[in-house]
């Protein structure tokens, strides 16, 4: 299987620090590279992380606050400069289209752009994908969408079942392609008889929002959930006021939703140390917990 | 005297590298902070360099290529966030006003902005300055202006001359303010008789351009010249084609103009090592030569 991993390019909300660049997350997913919320400096963080512009196939913006989008022009400029020839879909809230246009139009036009303005929650029909992609509305101070990627369920061939039916060689591929196979004795074997369900993977990206049903929906059964945890519960009032989550809220929703790998990020500069975020989240979440650091790579957990 | 120094925030042209952020230069000049050509990531470089948004009093853009301006929104956002109350003049080529507006309008409006679009070469009447500020047209692929700061000449009091006239105490200040002083014996002493010329300092900023008369004019008698040296002379053809200078050209013009401290910057990523830039420039320039590195501080040389 080709690598599926999250490359963390930046983890700061609002103000970058010496340790943390503004947001930026590349999800490598087989041959795809989905860049989420490129904040200012993403282009350079890509250099540090060894991410080429050519590896980007989609760009997804949750909303148009600067720490989530000011890196877009630099990325578009780089796609141009590196003469990337494949198309790049750009998903963004349609309500912020004027901001998108300003960001797009401060650099030379990258001809590969395919704009995918998101006007309402629901599936986004991205071309040429092996997964479903969906936007779900969140609750921030401006129109904000979270995204999730859902790989359809597949079938996993069981070698012992194949052997029991005496199926081998090119017949295996034929059975997988056609769904059934007629044996020499005229019995028909279906794919279901020699395979089991291989659950598709799910990845969800939740940024910036108060707790709301959209967060819960996005998190549902996510193998990996990348979620903002701007504040600690001691600052829950601020979190609510500014439309953000606390580490405890993020962990609780992840636990309830059956998340496997939880990646907390988008930290307020007010916290010099993030050990408290880890401790607070660990109280509620018992899966794989990652407090994101810039340039970290987090593998999507292998299939269930 | 308050510090006058250049804080180098970034030194890369076009593409940032691990060692070099995109352009960005803060000139600290007594109580002023002039930010030149903030490329993407300038906001974070300011953190690394210990430069606060509040220390910025003017922002000067030479032209609207991304590596010279994509950091502007982040800086404006930061001026807002840090609740800076003083006005900030922003000089930029008037021909690129649409780009300026896009960059300004992707972030919340900073009320302190005083726009100073530059339509033609000549003095820019900046309010509240103790220096003259001037734009001079350069020769790049889009409308580009270089800038220079000229401190008017002053007078330096000569203590032995004061003593010879028997002038002391409050009379010294009166003579400086009024230009002349009547002595007890009715003789009138002029300021010129007890002082000598104190030459004003000059700072020039030259970015991106082919060699042209504007470069020569800007460099004239500069105490500090910050100038692009994108290429080496072996790539002089490329330099001319793309509207840039070589290290040799920058050094030659600096030498002819009587520059004291020459700061080379804006290097192409094609050169992994800049020792050749230093050697090439040193062949032609015998003053203080600085090959800029990110986060370097270069003092403006003390007055002649």
UniProtKB/TrEMBL annotation, chains A, B:
An annotated Gene Ontology molecular function: 3'-tRNA processing endoribonuclease activity
Amino-acid positions noted as binding Zn(2+) 1 in the UniProt annotation, renumbered to this chain: 63, 65, 140, 208
Domain Metallo-beta-lactamase: 20-134, 198-267
Protein EC: 3.1.26.11
Binding site for Zn(2+) 2: 67-68, 208, 266
Domain of life of the organism encoding this protein: Bacteria
Cofactor(s) needed: Zn(2+)
Cofactor note (record): Binds 2 Zn(2+) ions.
Keyword tags: Endonuclease, Hydrolase, Metal-binding, Nuclease, tRNA processing, Zinc
Keyword tRNA processing attached: yes
Alphabetized SUPFAM superfamilies for the sequence: Metallo-hydrolase/oxidoreductase
UniProt-annotated catalytic positions: 67 (proton acceptor)
Catalysis: reaction(s): Endonucleolytic cleavage of RNA, removing extra 3' nucleotides from tRNA precursor, generating 3' termini of tRNAs. A 3'-hydroxy group is left at the tRNA terminus and a 5'-phosphoryl group is left at the trailer molecule
A Pfam match: Lactamase_B
Listed Gene3D superfamilies: Ribonuclease Z/Hydroxyacylglutathione hydrolase-like (3.60.15.10)
Function noted in UniProt: Zinc phosphodiesterase, which displays some tRNA 3'-processing endonuclease activity. Probably involved in tRNA maturation, by removing a 3'-trailer from precursor tRNA.
PANTHER family: ZINC PHOSPHODIESTERASE ELAC PROTEIN 1
Assembly and oligomerization: Homodimer.
Homology family: Belongs to the RNase Z family.
Descriptive protein name: Ribonuclease Z
Organism of origin: Nocardia macrotermitis
Lineage: Bacteria, Bacillati, Actinomycetota, Actinomycetes, Mycobacteriales
Gene from which the chain derives: rnz
């Amino acid at each position: 299987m080709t690598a599926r991993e999250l490359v963390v390019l930046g983890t700061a909300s609002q103000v970058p620090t010496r340790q943390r660049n503004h947001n930026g997350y590349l999800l490598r997913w087989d041959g795809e590279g989905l860049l989420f919320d490129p904040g200012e400096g993403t282009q350079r963080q890509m250099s540090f992380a060894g991410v080429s512009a050519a590896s980007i196939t989609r760009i997804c913006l949750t909303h148009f606050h600067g720490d989530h989008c000011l890196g877009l022009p630099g990325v578009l400029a780089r796609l141009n400069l590196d003469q990337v020839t494949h198309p790049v879909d750009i998903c963004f809230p349609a309500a912020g289209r004027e901001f998108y246009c300003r960001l797009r139009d401060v650099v030379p036009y990258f001809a590969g752009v395919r704009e995918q303005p998101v006007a309402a929650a629901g599936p986004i029909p991205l071309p040429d994908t092996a997964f479903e992609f969906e936007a779900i509305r969140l609750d921030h101070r401006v129109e904000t969408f979270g995204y999730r990627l859902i790989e359809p369920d597949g079938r996993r061939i069981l070698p012992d079942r194949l052997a029991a039916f005496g199926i081998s060689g090119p017949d295996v591929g034929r059975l997988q392609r056609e769904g059934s196979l007629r044996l020499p004795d005229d019995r028909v074997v279906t794919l279901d008889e020699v395979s089991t369900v291989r659950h598709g993977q799910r990845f969800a990206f939740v940024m910036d929002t108060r707790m709301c049903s959209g967060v819960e929906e996005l998190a549902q059964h996510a193998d990996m959930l990348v979620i903002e945890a701007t504040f600690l519960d001691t600052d829950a009032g601020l979190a609510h006021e500014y439309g953000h989550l606390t580490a405890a809220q993020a962990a609780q929703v992840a636990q309830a939703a059956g998340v496997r790998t939880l990646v907390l990020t988008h930290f307020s500069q007010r916290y010099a140390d993030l050990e408290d975020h880890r401790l607070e989240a660990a109280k509620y979440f018992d899966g794989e917990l990652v407090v994101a650091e810039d340039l970290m790579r987090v593998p999507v957990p292998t299939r269930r």
